[in-house]
Amino acid sequence: MNLEEIKQASIDVVERRMTEIRGIDLDSVSDFAELDKEIDALNERARDLEDIEKSKHEMRNKINSGIILSNPINKPIEERVTLTKENYLSSQEYRSGFIKRLLGRDTTVEERTALSIADTENIIPTQLQNDIMMKAKEYAPILNDITLLNVNGNVKFAIEGVVNEAKAHNENERITAEKDTFVEVTLSTNEIVKMIQISSSVKSMSIPAFETWLVNSLAESVAMKIEKVIFKGTGISEAKGIDKITWENDKNAVEIEADKNTTANDIYKLFGLLADGYARNARVYCSRKTLFQDLLGLQDKSKNDLIIKEGGTYYLLGTKIDLTASVDLHEVILGDPKKYAANMPESTTVKAQYDIDTNSYKYLGVAQFDGKPGIEKAFVKLVKKSV
Q1: 3 state SS of 194
Q2: What is the mean pLDDT of the chain?
Q3: Buried b (16+ CB within 10 A) or exposed e, 71-98
Q4: Handedness of CA 91, 94, 100, 105 (dihedral sign)
């Protein structure tokens, strides 16, 4: 948006644009100065609109109490949505009150009313929760691919296993139903916590700027922790990771001797171990080092098209490669991420505390997450033996 457009923008337009900016990949920005000017202008417009709303509120109070007119008047009934336990988290009053409380600022009567409805203190507003999850999925792409529920408390559900293909049918012949398989998965709740810290200058930040900082900080730290447990979680007081599947050579794993290098035949063998039903939606997961040290060197245009790159994304035998530091060096995991079942309740909380020793504010983000491979045979692994 240009500066003139921002000066005329409504609060909805300002917030929508700030949400778009939060999702920008900074590596792709060519003019940081221009983006910085836009952000400053948006923050200034947000402050102006907040002042205007405050003035309107004071004016309404004067009108309703009859101060402006010499004769008493009947108080008009404002059209306002009644806040309840079912809708308060998505209200503007709760959102602004939540941020102001974290910043240690005064809240309005309406904001305090919305905050008082919460059963648990400091539950993140719906819009911020959505922003955090959207940003977290940028940091940890596997969150886009797994079967992820948002249900409070323990949850039990079925995840689809093998789906039998449709068969041709001759007229008048008896039809015999074939049973598709489902695996029941039970998940509990395990805490994921992250402490983030910022200097006392937080007090001078505008509400939109603070929201951006809070969303980015929590999203990155929580996403990295969740991604790690999806791959490496022990299953004890945390999610069970894909890496905790029991791996057997030639059954669901390809083992490479410690003194050997990965070969193209190892990759072919790995793909051959994955059943067709799971190969359809499969992804390849490995570290950046593994990609550049082990895999790219296998490409030989005269013999194969093992790896191709399209638009910045690498594909191994036509299967998308997602890079993650949560898979060890020299290892590759291939599988259908939809067969990993997870639950992340929406009731993420943030608690704030001033630290006098460092003249800073600490914010503790607490989220719940549990997961496990619902169907273990949907994953295979290339693993290098240790020395």
Answers
A1: strand
A2: 80
A3: eeeeeeeeeeeebeeeebbebbbbbbbb
A4: positive
Measured distance CA(55)–CA(57) in Å, rounded? 5
Distances (CA, A) of 31 to 37, 105, 172, 344, 353: 10, 34, 70, 37, 36
Q: What is the pLDDT of residue 155?
A: 62
Q: Is 241 helix (H, G, I), strand (E, B) or coil?
A: coil
Cβ atoms 319, 284 nearer than 8 A: yes
Q: What whole-number distance in Å separates Cα of residue 65 and Cα of residue 67?
A: 6
**What is the model's pLDDT at position 381?**
97
DSSP characters over 49-62: HHHHHHHHHHHHHH
What per-residue confidence (pLDDT) applies to 28? 73
The kind and range of the H/E element at 285 are strand 283-286
The reported pTM is: 0.66
**CA separation for the pair 125, 257 (Å, rounded):** 51
Count CB neighbours of 231 within 10 A: 21
Could you give the CA distance from residue 220 to residue 137 in angstroms, rounded to a whole number? 9
CA distance 73 to 64: 7
CB-CB contact of 184 with 211 (8 Å): no
Which has the closest alpha carbon to 111: 132, 45, 102? 102
Tell me the pLDDT tens digit for each residue of 141-188.
898 899 988 777 666 656 665 544 444 444 555 544 445 456 666 666
Identify the sign of the CA torsion 88, 90, 96, 99. positive
pLDDT at 71: 41
Q: At CA 24, angle to CA 22 and CA 26, rounded to 5?
A: 110
Q: Residue 363: which residues within 8 A CB-CB, separation 6 or more?
A: 102, 195, 196, 197, 198, 214, 217, 350, 351, 352
User: What sign results for the dihedral spanned by CA atoms 67, 70, 72, 78?
Assistant: negative
Question: How confident is the model over 7-52, as pLDDT tens digits?
Answer: 777 877 777 777 777 777 776 777 777 877 888 887 888 888 777 7
Phi, psi of 162, rounded to the nearest 5 degrees: -85, 130
- Residue 235 · residue 372 · CB < 8 Å: yes
